[in-house]
Amino acid sequence: MSQNKNVSFERSVPQQPRPSNVYVGVGGSDSLCINPKRDHKSENYEDLQLEFNPLVFSSLEQYLPPHMLHLSREVKVQYMRNILLRYLPESERIRIQKHKEYRQKIMLNYPPLHKEIYSMDAEKFFTPSFLRAIKENTEESFRSIMAEPCKGIYTFEMLQPRFCEMLVAEVDHFERWVHATKFRIMRPNIMNQYGAVLDDFGLEAMLDRLMNDFIRPLSRVFYSEIGGSSLDSHHGFVVEYGINRDVELGFHVDDSEVSLNICLGGEFSGGELFFRGVRCDEHVNSDIQPGEIFDYYHVPGHAILHPGRHRHGARPTTSGNRINLILWCRSSAFRELKKYRRDFSSWCEECKRKKKEKERLLVMVTQQELMKREMQSAS
């Protein structure tokens, strides 16, 4: 529901605390449960013409009040649609509709270079080790192919060289077509002046499969506290750095719950990513703490997976050119429920630090009070 852009470091007004029992109201009689019913099998909404991604409705359904779970699909759709519309102003709905028309115009006219990458072919896209881990679908299998060089950041070999080459060539082909036809190109976000949104020229379905079948299993294990189990939409794009391209990327957080970043190749120097700690909106500008400093050096075909709220940036690419595939994965349920909470100590390192400090002070005050009572008793 939010725009495709990196989020600048701005403080938001904290929400007022809500009871942590059953429902979260959103105006009128519409409400959601704070905790989902995990064993409920959601409906499939893909055959309906809706303003929102059908996966959003399937994800939200588990958060419906219990009495609604077994009502007709039409009733549930209307209920969830009313909730979603409250947070999507008319101007945003108009923008989304225009963007949809823009995509349709591209796909009616753009001639793909490599049609085989427009549908998921896992055996040809991914490395055998990655496929084996996903097939086994256990934390042990995932960790067997991953490194965790910094808490919550995972790196692993993922894409085969041939797929990387084809995707790079497809993006180059698309940009040449845009230039030749004088078609307007939408850039990935406000911070990147080069690159392209892959969803805009036909790769949306393939990236949906990438998120649902290959990233969500990982996120369910490693990022459950930030919506990793309920990812339901994405923003997929490539970025380009180097000569006559973007040089660096400023310090920011992503508009995602979970971010996947894969180097597709190129001969280059520099451009390493730097990470500086996970933060909620309120603490996004807080100081860097010991143990939060981590730098990552790109390797073609290798992926880095991290929370979208992990503050990071990219240092200057000093020579050559590199191109990266980025997939921002989002959870509408997590975003909705986050509005009614103030304590994010399960994932925000600053919230966690402040909570520990409060507990330490409380223990100290309690100890002092006990000592004072003992002294009074002794006298």
UniProtKB/TrEMBL annotation:
Gene3D superfamilies per the UniProt record, alphabetical: q2cbj1_9rhob like domain (2.60.120.620)
Polar residues biased stretches: 1-19
Region entry Disordered, spans: 1-21
Lineage top rank: taxon: Eukaryota
UniProt keyword list: Dioxygenase, Iron, Metal-binding, Oxidoreductase
InterPro entries (alphabetical): Oxoglu/Fe-dep_dioxygenase_dom, Pro_4_hyd_alph
GO molecular function terms attached to this record: dioxygenase activity; iron ion binding; L-ascorbic acid binding; oxidoreductase activity, acting on paired donors, with incorporation or reduction of molecular oxygen
Pfam family, one: OGFOD2-like
Domain Fe2OG dioxygenase: 232-331
Cofactors required: L-ascorbate
PANTHER family found in the cross-reference section: 2-OXOGLUTARATE AND IRON-DEPENDENT OXYGENASE DOMAIN-CONTAINING PROTEIN 2, 2OG-FE(II) OXYGENASE FAMILY OXIDOREDUCTASE
Protein name: Fe2OG dioxygenase domain-containing protein
Species annotation: Sphenostylis stenocarpa
Organism ancestry: Eukaryota, Viridiplantae, Streptophyta, Embryophyta, Tracheophyta
